[in-house]
Amino acid sequence: MHNDKKEIIANPDLPQSIRTVVKMYPSNQINRLHYGGLPHIGNALWSSWSSDEVQKAAEAYENYSLSTNLLINGFVPPEENKIRLGGGSPAPFEPLTDCVIGVIDILEKRKLSYYPLAAGEDDLKLPIINYFDNEYSRKINKDNIIFTHSSTQAFTLLMESILDYGDVVIMTAPNYGLFTFIPERVGGKVKFLELHIDDKWKINPQKLKKLIGEINNELKTDYDRNRGKYIFRRSDTTPKVCAFVNYNPHNPTGIVYGDKEKALLLELSYICKEAGVFIIDDLAYSGLEYDRRNTALPICSMEDHFDNTITLYTLSKSYGLAGFRSGMIVANEIVISLVRDRIFQVFDSLSPLQQSAMSNIFKIDVQSEKNREEYFSNITQEYYERFIFVKTILVGLNKINEQEKNILDRLIRANNLSIDQIEDLSGISNLEIMIEPKSGFFLLLDLTKFIGKTYQGFKVENDRTLLQFLYTFGNIKALTGNAFCWPKPEQLIIRVTMAQNYDDLLAGFLRLKRVLKLLK
Hints:
Radius of gyration: 24 Å
Low-confidence stretches: none
Structural class: alpha/beta
CATH class of the domain at 151-315: Alpha Beta
Largest sheet: 7 strands, mixed
CATH architecture of the domain at 151-315: 3-Layer(aba) Sandwich
């Protein structure tokens, strides 16, 4: 149900206090009063998003979220149960035991009747300090660490701390879409570094260097000519590229930057350091690398690159604790102190429960290290096998190799599935897997060849019409390329999750297969 802002303001049954508040907000937020999808993503402090890419991303989340907007005119709502292929939650595996132990320890041995400090508990930082010393020969102290409720909150607090009005944050395209709006909500702008197949979907350092230079030159020219636009800057410096966000492993491509890519990471870091640009190293999917010999390498661990690197950790994706809401920032003590101040000003402090669960993933005793590697070896194998399962449904049995066929046979037996349930195993013509992931639980599907195809008079032409088609004829929800800033607008890309049990994967992807085959 939608509500017209004008009707709300004019409603005499509402007190003047509420009608006054309503006037403060744009219609696209107020008109979502009764809303079943995602909450409002917010609005740019500039009053409009800075680029066409960010605007399209905002529209994509709006379309993805509200199913009633996707029903094609003249058709009845779908009666089948909803298939959710666009979710970001991990599979419902058991969380790492040490995280649970950390929570139990706080409940059993500590009093929760006192208010913790905004800076966090010093004793819970000790395992992290020891881990950095042991694993990376990196000396850090308690002032380099602060706990947060999630990496999203961490990123928001960072943007409020290091970004001045008019500054730019560079992100890759594609990226984690919901991060895209955060810099712009606090007065910054987002620009994109396109990833390309010619670079094997990895960051090209020289392209980044060139982009930083181009943006800084544009900002200086605009600042010199239009100084009045920047009256909200807290400093008297020229606007600049403030930060570059590095996702490792990358969301949504699944690309990993490990020891094999150390030279590339060093080059990226040197470029950013020389340009005065922070690297925000987002390690949300660290631990989910399929190749356990090439795991994500934190940039902050390398040589003299610590102080220019801000590292984000979270328990959400890799540790099965998305609902627990626990994150952490490791950075120079000045950055940490600014984040600490915002924590204190907004929500006072963080529960020791979240802090202890995060702290315990860094324990370096023999048993804890064994527990971690066994845990990751098991769940990454699970995710890889789910990838093989989904891949077979989508591309067909004849396009997987013998090793993958053996995995498929074992999965079918282990999960009491029938080979007949995967139908004719011929795959979906006109569909391609864009990138075979090296980590995580997302898959990028290329549906570009479906552009221009029709069913019952309805033509698929772009992201929105694809969403309409999938919803109306299959009650399927997926995340389209605009939502994660896919760099080629002429391509039709969707991101789907593989973090479901096998029955749900089978039902979901068979329905996707069935519905796409309707298009002629």
